[in-house]
């Protein structure tokens, strides 16, 4: 179908851009032997899982449902899971589908180790090196009082029988210089335990497919552990798989003025791109600039009753009018997995642009999607 015929709002994922990212990730695996997993918490568009599975070693999950999705839609690859705690009901299903299970505490390990014993599942403990360079606490798994992972003080070195790996996750949208410094801290604190492990998982938050990312230093960081301790190394980026590979197109519904011109869109920051408010950040808009950069400046706002449903201020070369299309960049990650139907606002459709340029409407939503959640 023609893209111009698709009703806004809609997310558009570009297959060629996904492949570009996957080829970069595959090159890291080829150079280092590291296994790279898709962290589904950032991108779970399973219609692309057969493609992603050709490049990556598998998926990692933060819940039973994510694990089931990876297991079902990327068969023949590894299925990993980590959660701060597991329920008995979920765990009985998890052991049927997961290859690797990472526990957040030794109490969780003690609770389930007899159940896992003899299944062939490889188990790990998440460690907290108490080192991170993330400035926003909501995304920092190592901030003071964090529930994520076992600190050195609480590490039960005599309770490792059956544990084959250690996992740490300390990064968010960062370059490999941060990883290199983190690797030194992890080795300093936990190296004496790593040497007895089969693998180490360096988590996610690695912006590997960003243009300024230092891949050589990433490879050095991976090889540091594999060379020193002979362990296999896992990475589980989510954003890097779909970074800059998707867009969100919306339409202008109305123009009003309150000391500044305001464009009301059919797209909501609160509903359709919640990280804009949580991070917070200002997404790029195609053919738009910073306020005052072009002649016409507008505040782009959503249609909900939330006063703070504001995407940001932008300038345009021509004045906006109802019906004009606005396209936001880098909208493949943390959008479809986090969006919601607050106020009964409908969810954007999901569209795939194939390698040959053809556009396919993957999914549409409606009233029943809103009602069925309630």
TrEMBL record:
<keyword id="KW-0745">Spermidine biosynthesis</keyword>
<dbReference type="GO" id="GO:0008836">
    <property type="term" value="F:diaminopimelate decarboxylase activity"/>
</dbReference>
<dbReference type="InterPro" id="IPR009006">
    <property type="entry name" value="Ala_racemase/Decarboxylase_C"/>
</dbReference>
<dbReference type="InterPro" id="IPR022643">
    <property type="entry name" value="De-COase2_C"/>
</dbReference>
<dbReference type="GO" id="GO:0008295">
    <property type="term" value="P:spermidine biosynthetic process"/>
</dbReference>
<feature type="binding site">
    <location>
        <position position="239"/>
    </location>
    <ligand>
        <name>substrate</name>
    </ligand>
</feature>
<dbReference type="InterPro" id="IPR029066">
    <property type="entry name" value="PLP-binding_barrel"/>
</dbReference>
<feature type="domain" description="Orn/DAP/Arg decarboxylase 2 C-terminal">
    <location>
        <begin position="132"/>
        <end position="331"/>
    </location>
</feature>
<keyword id="KW-0456">Lyase</keyword>
<keyword id="KW-0663">Pyridoxal phosphate</keyword>
<dbReference type="InterPro" id="IPR005730">
    <property type="entry name" value="Nsp_de-COase"/>
</dbReference>
<dbReference type="GO" id="GO:0045312">
    <property type="term" value="P:nor-spermidine biosynthetic process"/>
</dbReference>
<dbReference type="GO" id="GO:0009089">
    <property type="term" value="P:lysine biosynthetic process via diaminopimelate"/>
</dbReference>
<feature type="binding site">
    <location>
        <position position="275"/>
    </location>
    <ligand>
        <name>substrate</name>
    </ligand>
</feature>
<protein>
    <submittedName>
        <fullName>Carboxynorspermidine decarboxylase</fullName>
    </submittedName>
</protein>
<dbReference type="Pfam" id="PF00278">
    <property type="entry name" value="Orn_DAP_Arg_deC"/>
</dbReference>
<keyword id="KW-0210">Decarboxylase</keyword>
């Amino acid at each position: 179908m023609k893209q111009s015929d698709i009703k806004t709002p809609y997310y558009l994922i570009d297959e060629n851009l996904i492949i570009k990212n996957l080829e970069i990730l595959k090159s890291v695996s080829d150079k280092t032997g590291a296994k790279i997993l898709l962290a589904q918490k950032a991108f779970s568009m399973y219609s692309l899982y057969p493609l992603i599975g050709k490049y990556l070693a598998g998926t990692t999950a933060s819940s039973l449902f994510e694990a089931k999705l990876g297991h079902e839609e990327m068969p023949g690859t590894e299925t990993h899971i980590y959660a701060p705690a597991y329920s008995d009901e979920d765990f009985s299903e998890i052991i049927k589908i997961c290859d690797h299970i990472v526990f957040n505490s030794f109490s969780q390990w003690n609770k389930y180790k007899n159940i896992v014993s003899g299944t062939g599942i490889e188990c790990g403990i998440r460690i907290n090196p108490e080192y991170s360079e993330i400035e926003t606490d909501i995304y920092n798994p190592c901030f003071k009082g964090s529930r994520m992972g076992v600190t050195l003080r609480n590490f039960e070195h005599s309770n490792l029988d059956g544990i084959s790996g250690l996992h740490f996750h300390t990064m968010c949208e960062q370059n490999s210089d941060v990883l290199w410094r983190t690797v030194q801290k992890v080795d300093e604190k936990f190296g004496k335990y790593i040497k007895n492990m089969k693998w180490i998982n360096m988590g996610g938050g690695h912006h590997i497919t960003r243009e300024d990312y230092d891949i050589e230093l990433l490879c050095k960081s991976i090889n540091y552990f594999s060379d020193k301790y002979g362990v296999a190394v896992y990475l589980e980026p989510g954003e890097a798989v779909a970074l800059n590979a998707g867009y969100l197109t919306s339409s202008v519904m109305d123009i009003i003025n309150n000391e500044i011109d305001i464009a009301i869109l059919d797209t909501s920051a609160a509903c359709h791109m919640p990280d804009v408010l949580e991070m917070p950040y200002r997404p790029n808009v195609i053919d738009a600039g910073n306020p005052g950069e072009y002649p016409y400046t507008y505040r782009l706002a959503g249609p909900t009753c939330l006063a703070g449903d504001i995407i940001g201020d932008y300038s345009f070369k021509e004045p906006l009018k109802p019906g004009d299309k606005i396209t936001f960049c880098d909208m493949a990650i943390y959008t479809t997995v986090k969006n919601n139907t607050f106020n009964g606002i409908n969810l954007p459709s999901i569209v795939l642009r194939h390698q040959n340029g053809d556009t396919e409407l993957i999914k549409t939503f409606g009233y029943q999607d809103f009602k069925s959640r309630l």
